[in-house]
Write a structure and sequence with these properties.
By secondary structure, the protein is of the alpha+beta class. It has helices at about 35-45, 70-105, 110-130, and strands at about 1-10, 15-20, 45-55, 65-70, 140-145.
Length: about 150
């Protein structure tokens, strides 16, 4: 389970909108000036993310809670979003190079077009398959008890 602290912004029935600080390990690394991830992290800058979370207890706006998401759902989401488009892009490149190019007796343009078509197909598949992963197993949820940040009357 991957856990994070979040601040409750708004309560909506059995769900709440919470704010999580965006963090990066790049600030503690001595290679941050030479690393692409460090440069992207600096460009995006610090900030917060709003997330809708299913509640397991009573909270009020301003409370800090622990939220979590199962690692299995994180991994399967990452496979869908990152690897499916990459593999379909590579499949398009191989298909273009080994089958389409010799069949059409074309140059590199056929391979490039097949590569782009494979990448577009991969992103279209992600778009079609992502709603099927929208169940509660893939949504963050409240873990444990509430940590009050101020006194409530």
């Amino acid at each position: 389970m991957s856990e994070e602290l979040a601040t409750v912004i708004q309560v909506d029935g059995d769900h709440a909108w919470v704010s999580c600080e965006r963090r990066s390990a790049c600030s503690s690394c001595h290679q941050q000036s030479d690393c692409g991830t460090g440069l992207v992290s600096k460009a995006i800058g610090p900030g917060s993310q709003r997330v809708r979370v299913r509640l397991s207890g009573a909270v009020r706006p301003g409370d800090q809670i622990r939220i979590g998401i199962a690692r299995r759902s994180l991994l399967s989401s990452a496979v869908l979003v990152y690897l499916l488009p990459l593999f379909s892009l590579l499949a398009g490149a191989l298909l273009g190079q080994l089958w389409l190019r010799p069949m059409l007796m074309a140059g590199e343009g056929a391979t490039i077009l097949a590569t782009l078509a494979g990448g577009a197909l991969g992103f279209a598949l992600v778009h079609l398959l992502a709603p099927r992963l929208g169940g509660d197993a893939y949504a963050p949820r409240m873990l444990g008890s509430v940590i009050p940040t101020r006194c409530h009357p």
